[in-house]
Amino acid sequence: MPIINEEIASAFGELADLLELTGADRYRILAYRRAAATLAGFARDVGKISEKELTGLSGIGRATASKVREFIETGTMRALEDARAELPPGVLEMTTLPGMGPKKAMLLHSELGINTIDELQTAIEGQRLRELKGFGSKTEEKLLGAIGRRAHASKRFLLEGAFELADEILRELRALPQVSRAEYAGSLRRMKETIGDLDILAAADDPAPVMEHFASMRFGRKRGSIARGPTKSSIVTKAGLQVDLRVVAPDEFGAALQYFTGSQAHNVAVREIAVKKGMKLSEYGLFTVEDGKRIAGATEEEIYQALGMQTPLPTMRENRGEIPLALDERLPSVIRREDIKGDLHAHTVYSDGTGSVAEMVQAGAEMGYSYFAITDHGGGRWRFTEKIIRKQRQEIERVSRELGGGMTVLQGVEMSIRPDGSFAFSDEVLASFDFVIASVHDALGMDPDAMTRRLIRVMEHPEVNIIGHPTSRRLQKRPPISFDLEAVFRAAAANDVALEISAHPERIDLKDDHVRLARELGCLFSIDTDSHGPGRLHRMRYGVGTAQRAWVPAEEVINTWPLQRLKKFFAKKA
DNA sequence: GCCGTTTTCGGCCCGACTGTTTTCAGTCG
């Protein structure tokens, strides 16, 4: 999705946060949040759509549309700048601590003059918080813990932002006449759940114009600091992500790509194989030791082939057993993006999604799926009554006839799991859905034994088919819930409940290590995006990448199956 | 600030959990 959409969404989000601190009308705040969500979920560049189309988007009216245009023209919004000027920036930052919302942050600011997280830490250590109403020893303890974790977290970036930036850079580089190939490498290509920096490679005989162009590109609107050499340039984006571009000769491209993709452990092992065969592998190519003659280098495949190996997928290059198998020509076949026949987790405006049923179905059809599921939230605050469930069912049936293009649209539901492992809906209501996802959304801090019981009870429920984002973590925001992974995974396998691999970039849940464990215990998986807007469905690739990192074959992923087999699985009659 | 096959004005953001305040405010999803 276009970077400008994300930027404007983030500006509205910040505006809403700031207004919340200073106590603006809550519905105005809500309106900005809705506008932000809509823009973030919109697939096309908002700068390139008509006024009518813009105000036609849900949650965008005259005032927000004019702010959108203002941002496109000036790079900011008057209202945002005014709101920023009202408070020290650290006050907003304090609200990123779990348990610290706008009310508490403002109280600390106004009563104790605390304006940064550092000052907060000092105040807690000096036991000054206890004087304030609403602050006790537990709060102090929690905040100190959160501040500590924050200090230890190294600066890593979520996949999505990095991917979008990489895609944009590649699009521009590939359009240059001098560039014959361009790819991203590094941990992004291996699809690690977070990445430290972005490595881009381009093949060109003459690097100078490529470097020139790279230096002139805008990164997230603001040109970052830049270091330039003849074949390597580095830029640090506004967000702090370092982007390295290396330009290599076309006949070195494969070697460079292999080298910069890593992982380091994989490369070390591959080089050892080269040495044993009387060859030398570097980022410039594969050479004979004897006379330094180039054997391979233009593509990765020819390098691996020359070493007598299959080419492992980038996502499998972690030296976790892939090398002996590649040497034996026995690399397992793992899932590919094109194996996915449908997305089984998506929200609409019936709960907290930004898209209508029609918009989501259309987006699903555009992904080329043969089936697609609408799974709004059941229970909790969403008044998803039996009447509304029926209404949604009718809407789904009508819309899928009109827009589905032959795609089957299922009506599922994502049920919040209560602390005792029960649901807000009766079994009868649950049975009226095509299938049921069950997810932990609250009471995240339960002790592991209780959490394990809670989840096992869910596994044994006859209507439950998928556990959504099983550890409920939020990358860089919230740790996973604690439970006995093995016991719960065993229960899933025994009860025909699939474990979700959420492709949501903030979740990536299950993560690769957990998927590996679950595979060993015989579990099946469902790779889903948990999309809350029509522009999010492409996130499927992060889930597929995660599954690949755990060597999952398509066969073990229920949403690669034909619809009839999937339905049997949901009916637990497989 | 947005929105309308119940409304162009009056709704919209609610239920559960947590910690602390003994009756509930703040936070989170």
Helix-strand layout with pairing:
Blueprint: H1 3-22, H2 26-40, H3 51-56, H4 62-74, H5 78-86, H6 89-94, H7 102-112, H8 117-125, H9 137-152, E1 157-158, H10 159-174, E2 181-184, H11 186-189, E3 194-195, E4 197-203, H12 207-216, E5 225-228, E6 232-236, E7 242-248, H13 253-261, H14 264-276, E8 279-282, E9 285-288, E10 294-296, H15 300-306, H16 322-327, E11 342-343, H17 357-366, E12 371-378, H18 386-403, E13 408-416, H19 427-431, E14 435-439, H20 448-459, E15 466-467, H21 485-494, E16 498-502, H22 512-520, E17 525-528, H23 540-549, H24 563-570
The structure holds one DNA strand of 29 nucleotides.
Detailed description of the structure:
With 574 residues, the chain is α/β, with parallel strands linked by helices. It has 4 domains: 3-153, DNA polymerase beta, N-terminal domain-like (DNA polymerase, domain 1), CATH 1.10.150; 157-248, Beta Polymerase, domain 2, CATH 3.30.460; 258-327, 2-Layer Sandwich (Beta Polymerase, domain 3); 337-570, Metal-dependent hydrolases (TIM Barrel). 44% of the residues lie in helices and 13% in strands. The protein is built from 24 helices and 17 strands. The strands form 4 sheets. The chain has a 7-stranded parallel beta sheet with strand order 11-12-13-14-15-16-17, with helices on one face. It has a 5-stranded mixed beta sheet with strand order 2-4-7-6-5, sandwiched between helices. It starts with a helix and ends with a helix. 43% of the residues are buried. The protein binds one DNA strand of 29 nucleotides through residues 25-32, 34-35, 58-64, 98-104, 133-136, 138-139, 142, 352, 377, 379-383, 416, 418-419, 441-445.
